[in-house]
Amino acid sequence: MGYPLYSPPYQLDIGLLSDIGRSRTINQDDAGVIQLADNSGVLAYVADGMGGYNGGEIASQTAGEILQRMSASKLTEQNCAKSLLAGFTEANSAIYQLAEHSLELKSMGTTLVALVILEEYAFFANTGDSRLYLFRDHKTLQLSEDHSIVAELVRSGLITPAQAKQHPHKHVITHAVGVKPDVYVDISNAPVLIKPNDHFLLCSDGLYELVEDNEMLAIVSQHPAQIACEQLIQLANSRGGYDNISALIVHVIAK
């Protein structure tokens, strides 16, 4: 006789959409969500690839495939952060090795942001500037920390967030998965206790550079997850869609 499956005290409404945008010829974003072993929760991620030819696409897909393999492991509150770090590290090594053995893939890499909903808790990790937001009690909180030149300037008080949006180096990131032998990863210091009606949004910069935080909050709060993803990407495209655009929403609903 096996162990009973865990039955969380909530349901998850999940939406996911990745769009090529209006200017690019290929979508180098990759996004996915997969159920964890024992029905204990889900793992969600967004990766924004970079590199010539199809290198960015390969980098983001490689990262996603490696993270998805985590779902087969037994994740617990005690080992989840360590497992996320191990997943990012393995993805970094795999992408770096691919790039080292191919001139066409040289210097490819990817941003990566990941969220694990495990029983009543949320864990997260990121490298680069793809983001994780939490919309709770009509407020917006960016859980991830951007690894970019302009983000460092904002954190140091040298420029304002408004100035960062217009900065000539706003697309220059300081950390990415796969570009160096070692990778820097921000891991959640402590699990986030989730609450009913929490909305988590993972997205690439193609979304948040064209859609304001208050607009995200309004759309995510007022619509089912899949429709909200569609509306967010439609709004970004209506404003130029200069990059690939990915949105993944996890809405926590009390049973």
Automatic annotation (TrEMBL):
Classification via Pfam families: PP2C_2
Q: Which SUPFAM superfamilies match?
A: PP2C-like
User: Which PROSITE patterns does this entry report, sorted A to Z?
Assistant: PPM_2
Q: Which molecular function terms from Gene Ontology are attached? A: protein serine/threonine phosphatase activity
Tell me which residues make up the PPM-type phosphatase domain.
13-252
Q: Which Gene3D superfamilies match?
A: PPM-type phosphatase domain
NCBIfam families attached here? Stp1_PP2C_phos
- UniProt protein name: PPM-type phosphatase domain-containing protein
Its source organism is Methylocucumis oryzae
